User: Fold this.
Amino acid sequence: MTYKKSLEFLSSLIDYERWHHHNYEFKLENYRYFLNKIDNPQLKVKKTVLIAGTKGKGSTATMLAKLLQSQGETVGLYTSPHLCDYRERIRINGSPIKQNDFASIMDFLQPFIIKEKQRITFFETLTTIAFLFFQMQKTTVNVFEIGLGGRLDATNVTEPELSIITRIGYDHTHLLGKTLGKIAGEKCGVLRRNKQVVISYQRNAALKAIEKKIKETGAIGVYYGKDYDATLLEETITGLKIHYNGINNDLDISVPMLGIHQIYNISTALAAVELLKPNLNINKTQKSLEKMVMPARIQIIQNNPIIILDMSHNAESAECLRDVLDKHFSNKKRKILLIGITKEKAKNSILKALSSFFSEIYVTQADLPRAESREILYRICCKFHNKCFMTQSVESGVNHIVNIMNTHDLLVITGSVYVAGEAVKALQTRERSNI
Assistant:
């Protein structure tokens, strides 16, 4: 099977990421049965870490993988979704799975998937590819970002050595519950008896629910603010300087990332690496964080004019983005927003948080069925701003805006990972055409 054919087959599977489904039915029984047919690769990957949460789980997963790599581990990292290529989701020491490996594993899986009466989904298939690839490459630690919730997510078929719960917020409420307590309860599906779980900063309602679940399951809680914490030393347009007060180590670190919310993700990743690697090499830890790159997390991808790529898809993330913009970019005369949001997200809250900062707003629609229509977004946008425009696609929006920008202007692209991914491709196409 070629890589192209493997993607065609993958695209034929049930895909809850791209499609908006009214009747979701997540069950792990079918998936466990399927994995048993292929000799349970999820139980053969070494030393797994599961990361659940609403905010920061992808950043925390990426940072933890980088930190573990700096300590000499061969690290498998599974995250979702991706910006430009499916292979970004499955990485070893930062390098994505090669096309021929992806296609070869899919070739092996395809007949098993076709035989299943209860169809294996898109996400379950990608998760299985990760299990098999990490097993094949003999990774020594494997970090899995939970796709949705925790209790019923495909990654939760593993037996983690350590779990992490990043900040809980309001997202996917139609599936996980409408209160922080209920959402936290779903995330706590990653807990295991007698295994440690690192808990990032939480609001009180979420923290109480987590503490209750930890007591019920017999997991061992390691808490932000009690067992570890961090203090902001300096915040500039080039990044953050932080003092980490850890479980066994205190250290000052610099990271080239924007947004003080990243303090929680960084300190949580550091606490996790301390537990996994008690004899931590401090110098390598600091150097690893100094070189950290976090794609599409308030990322400056171009200067003169400044273009910021982000994937804020809920109100809390939008407020974090707004905080960074107010602190570092208020002096820009012309401030342009290009935004597209998926259907189930809190569109009013996101646009309300961001709109007043910008001089003009362009609403767009990513190329996926779950994307909210540009017409609906435009109507919402007009409630908060008097200079709103529609663009037919992310690519056309990027091209139009970049063509009219001057050197000292600002463009922020956000709303979803899908918008961010299409924007990256549009900018890369422009760059190639200018060579």
Summary: The chain has a mean pLDDT of 93. The longest strand covers residues 229-236.
